[in-house]
Amino acid sequence: PFSINPEAFPAKLWRLANSSRFRSVRWDARGQGLLIDEQQFVSEVLKEAAEDGSSIFKTKNFTSFIRQLNLYGFQKLSKGLAVEPQLLSGDGAEADGRATGFLHHFHSPHFCRDRPDLLVHLKRLTNANKAKSAPGLAPSSRPGSPRQR
Amino acid sequence: PFSINPEAFPAKLWRLANSSRFRSVRWDARGQGLLIDEQQFVSEVLKEAAEDGSSIFKTKNFTSFIRQLNLYGFQKLSKGLAVEPQLLSGDGAEADGRATGFLHHFHSPHFCRDRPDLLVHLKRLTNANKAKSAPGLAPSSRPGSPRQR
Amino acid sequence: PFSINPEAFPAKLWRLANSSRFRSVRWDARGQGLLIDEQQFVSEVLKEAAEDGSSIFKTKNFTSFIRQLNLYGFQKLSKGLAVEPQLLSGDGAEADGRATGFLHHFHSPHFCRDRPDLLVHLKRLTNANKAKSAPGLAPSSRPGSPRQR
DNA sequence: GGCGTTCTAGAATATTCGTAG
DNA sequence: GCTACGAATATTCTAGAACGC
């Protein structure tokens, strides 16, 4: 557990977030969360790449991607206010005619722009890992927010 | 329970009360209660916003909004008319032609102008929350923290 | 519990399945399960109808619809392809140019074509209903099938 | 054993309806 | 009338569980 696996989910997500090729995943304004355009993500990450051999993920279902985010401790932040200012003007349709869908805003304390050093703390929340993370503390209360809908 | 959920009812109500865009919800003279113009509220908050994707609430019924107020501990103050004196001059029809309706006057001890710190005490009156509010009884079973959410 | 609520989920789903207007939900070949085209369903049921006031559901998320199916006891049947033979000819794009997505195949013993009388048994799987369904059995094991995958 | 994918369920809030007071 | 609340369903986010690799 000293380095990150470049083929595992955290590294893949990091590359997606910092890639200029994939526009469906990007940092929010403060670089502390991810904005994910569901429709565009399904098109350019899950489905298109699956045609050739360059698939990033094996799944074609967006829900499986969300399950991964949750398994690695990401939490959904907000629905309405996840939109960045410049997106509010265009109102749902980009200038290039590519329709955009709902934006999901996810956050993890170990996933911040310009802080690749934090990635090593992104652990899959298995029973073993959960026990190691808080071996004596109450595992129920979440640090920042009580519920995030 | 350390911060408020910006997507839950208390935060939405707070933003409505302090917004200059929405005129149907405003503080009363002492900043200790809310004045809600039913007709205007239905128009500008429930129905108009529902057309695009910017709905604050999913409901279009004013009574559902009232149910939320009650669920969060608000109580209606005025049996008769909660109209403030200076508002009576306009008397039912604003200068811009927008008709105004009856004003509802609601109050909660945890919802005061200039006291956003009190918002954390605005709890939904579920059975679980009510049990916690009245200790001494065995709520259900919260030894350490059996749940993860 | 003597009649069905025409505004609740089972009745809505029944109308969708038998409607010729909505093409995204239809019976499978034997009339014992539902085939649901996700992309088309989102377009014609969840999003389009939400623009005017004719929304069938309040949600715009397909996952919320799936949650309802599971809450009412529906189970997913096919993991691979639920596509019926005659649908394979069109192969992903209908004649009118509307792209079709993955088909979900769901089944409930109480939801069969030409058997509207069974609908009354479609109960929401709340704790109360589950207790009534099996008032002496272990509540964890499912009646017919242990797993459906 | 860990990880990824899939289907289902838990739990909290939101919405609706009815009705007690 | 009319205010408040119980209860049922609906929606949302997260987690459990099973399986394959």
| Main beta-sheet annotation of chain A | 4 strands, antiparallel
Please bin the fraction of helical residues of chain A.
25-40%
Shape of chain A from CA axes?
globular
Helix- and strand-based class of chain A? alpha+beta
Strand fraction of chain A equals: 5-15%
User: Could you report the average pLDDT of chain A, rounded to the nearest whole number?
Assistant: 78
Number of strands of chain A: 4
The level-1 CATH class of the domain at 9-80 and 99-125 in chain A? Mainly Alpha
**What is the rounded distance between the termini of chain A?**
33 Å
Radius of gyration of chain A: 16 Å
CATH architecture of the domain at 9-80 and 99-125 in chain A: Orthogonal Bundle
SSE order of chain A, one letter for each helix or strand: HEEHHEHEH
**CATH superfamily membership of the domain at 9-80 and 99-125 in chain A:** Winged helix-like DNA-binding domain superfamily/Winged helix DNA-binding domain
CATH fold name of the domain at 9-80 and 99-125 in chain A: Arc Repressor Mutant, subunit A
Q: Biggest interface and its residues per chain?
A: A-B, 17 and 17 residues
Main location (chains A, B, C): nucleus
Keywords (chains A, B, C): DNA-binding, Nucleus, Transcription, Transcription regulation
Organism (chains A, B, C): Ramphastos sulfuratus
Domain HSF-type DNA-binding (chains A, B, C): 5-125
